[in-house]
Amino acid sequence: MKVEDFEFLATLLRNRSGLVLTVDKAYLLESRLMPVARKYGHKDLDELVPVLRGADNREMLRDITEAMTTNESLFFRDMKPFDQLRDLIIPGLLKNRAAKRKFRIWCAACSSGQEPYSIAMLIKEAAAQLTGWRVEIVATDISVEMLEKAKAGVYTQFEVQRGLPVKLLVKYFAQNGDKWTIDPSLRSMIDFRGFNLLDDPASLGEFDIVFCRNVLIYFDQDLKRQVLEKVSNRLPNDGVLYLGGAETVLGVTDRFKPVSGQRGMYALTNGAPPIPA
After folding, report:
1. Which of 102, 106, 149, 155 could be cross-linked to 134 through a Cys-Cys bond (beta carbons 3.0 to 4.6 Å apart)?
2. Could you tell me the pTM of the whole model?
3. Which fold is adopted by the domain 80-268?
């Protein structure tokens, strides 16, 4: 691939999705975008890039963005945040939100849905505690393809074997051949929406808990800061942010601080998480 073509595609992807690609990732561009080039009748990226330079083809741009931002997900990935949610945050919210009897959770960059469905299962398992409460789960992703898969709630044997306890598989999934379909009651708990993290999330409303895990690692420092500051505006003083194990707010923004003793959990700098004393 020509250097100028790589730079053009890298800039295009950063502006559209926040994804930052360095020259050593040129192979990733070629492997993921070759199917897109062929879909539109081009033999390689050398033919595709001039077309992109010459016209604003929204469908092609969408396909390119989706090809590069589609990432894998697992049920109950890095189990720690789910343990914290069950054992610390929900009990804390039961106390702090007793008057409203409602709380909202945002799964940003939800990919194919394993994370929000994991949260939905956790909420279902805590049904006795949450009787009379309204729990809203909003799951967003930039990829239309991933959102459609998430909404369908159909997973392969390989996918359900990765992180999903057998007890929950049997309880919340129906088997059909080599595929597993999630229970409609869980699917109905989640509002799946298309959303680009570079946009203002004000339209999504306010949230008590935000899961934004394993996505900011693909952004540069400036875009990380922008996203985190926008997220901070959607949280109350006792709101909670979850990032991935390889991510941090340190050196990125002063809007958040790590919660002592709770890996991956962050609170607003001037706030405190709803952890019971």
Report:
1. 102
2. 0.86
3. Rossmann fold (3.40.50)
Residue ranges of E strands in 118-222: 134-141, 154-156, 173-176, 179-182, 190-194, 209-211
Task: Give the three-class secondary structure for 54.
Answer: helix
CA pair distance 38, 47, nearest whole angstrom: 10
Tell me the pLDDT tens digit for each residue of 152-185.
Answer: 999 999 999 988 999 999 999 999 988 999 999 9
> What contacts 27, CB < 8 A, 6 or more positions away?
none
Local structure of 202: helix, strand or coil: helix
Model confidence pLDDT, tens digit, residues 59-107: 888 888 888 876 778 999 999 999 999 999 999 999 999 999 999 999 9
Domain 3-69, what fold? Chemotaxis Receptor Methyltransferase Cher; domain 1 (1.10.155)
Determine phi and psi for 73, rounding to 5 degrees: -145, 165
Query: Closest Cα partner for 234 from 211, 257, 261, 215?
Result: 211
Strands 265-268 and 256-258: antiparallel
